[in-house]
């Protein structure tokens, strides 16, 4: 397998719901293993929480996620955003519509001064996203 770089997102108890949402957005195959599946003694209250989840899509995206175990609290910050970009306008607009539904749009998806269509949103799970659509070269 070649090397790859992909986001790994931490959640505070709703990783399963988030991964299922991203599966609806992007399609693909989702595999999720709970603490109860993976450990002989799961941390209290975490038997049904996701220890490791991975969504692989036909577009070549890989998104991983888990619920933080007790004692390792999630701190949401402004130091990372997941970015989608390309020239497949319909596909990217579809992702945007699904990701922004129920979330917060901080920059509407529209033509920008640099010529691309760009938008920023935070999905309903608190994860920030950027979508940039470049025009196809003739």
Automatic annotation (TrEMBL):
It comes from the Bacteria. This is VOC family protein. Residues 5-131 form the Glyoxalase/fosfomycin resistance/dioxygenase domain. InterPro entries: Glyas_Bleomycin-R_OHBP_Dase, Glyas_Fos-R_dOase_dom, PhnB-like. Pfam families: Glyoxalase. PANTHER family: PROTEIN YJDN, PROTEIN YJDN-RELATED. It comes from Streptomyces actinomycinicus. SUPFAM superfamilies: Glyoxalase/Bleomycin resistance protein/Dihydroxybiphenyl dioxygenase.
């Amino acid at each position: 397998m070649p090397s790859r770089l992909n986001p790994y997102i931490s959640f505070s108890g709703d990783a399963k719901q988030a991964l299922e949402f991203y599966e609806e957005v992007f399609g693909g195959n989702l595999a999720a293993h709970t603490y109860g599946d993976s450990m002989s003694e799961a941390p209290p209250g975490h038997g049904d929480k996701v220890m490791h989840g991975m969504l692989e899509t036909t577009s070549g995206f890989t998104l991983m996620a888990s619920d933080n175990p007790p004692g390792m609290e999630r701190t949401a910050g402004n130091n990372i955003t997941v970015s989608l970009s390309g020239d497949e306008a319909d596909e990217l607009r579809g992702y945007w519509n699904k990701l922004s539904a129920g979330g917060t749009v901080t920059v509407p998806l529209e033509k920008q001064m640099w010529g691309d269509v760009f938008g920023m949103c935070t999905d309903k799970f608190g994860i920030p996203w950027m979508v940039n659509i470049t025009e196809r070269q003739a």
